[in-house]
Amino acid sequence: MLNGLNHLTLAVSQLAASLDFYQRLLGLRLHARWEHGAYLSCGELWLCLSVDPQRQSTAPEHSDYTHYAFSIDEQDFAAFTERLERHGVVIWKKNKSEGASYYFLDPDGHKLEVHVGTLAQRLAACRAKPYQGMVFEE
To answer: pTM of the predicted model, to two decimals?
Structure first.
């Protein structure tokens, strides 16, 4: 039986730029690095950056909705997103859901999000205003 998400591996084109972004800008903890990769963590999530010469960035308007969302406490949200803006991150979407969210790209065009809120809060908002055809399983 599955019991959680073990890790994410992101293909990157330049390890130094990605390490700078994830460690210094986003604040993930660096555990190890080598010539073609690095291991970082964010809470219990293990993130592997792996240099891949085939990695090609796709403009947000030409890619799907797949993205990776990180949790952030409400009191930290404004300062964190202001720091991202000062560093010129590219925004790929405006927030339209409940809870504060900020959608941005990493140096290789991976779609990321920082989000204030939990699944329970999302479900409560959906119960109040369900998506078209939404059915609850509880």
So the answer is: 0.91
Dist. CA 103–CA 93, nearest whole Å: 6
30 and 74 in a single domain? The answer is no
Q: Please indicate, yes or no, if residue 28 is contained in any of the structural domains.
A: yes
> Cα dihedral angle (4, 41, 71, 132), rounded to 10 degrees?
-40
The number of residues making up the chain comes to 138
82 and 39 in a single domain? The answer is no
Same domain, 61 and 40: no
Provide the domain limits for residue 76. Answer: 56-130
The whole-angstrom separation of Cα 56 and Cα 40 is: 22
* Residues 32, 38 contacting (CB under 8 angstroms): yes
Residue for token digits 């080598």? Answer: 34
Residue 55 CA from chain centroid, whole number: 18
For 92-109, what is each residue's pLDDT tens digit?
999 988 889 999 999 999
Look at the alpha carbons of 97, 99, 102, 108 in this order and tell me if their dihedral is positive or negative: negative
The last residue of a domain, from among 18, 37, 53: 53
When pLDDT is averaged across residues 6-24 and rounded to a whole number, the result is 96
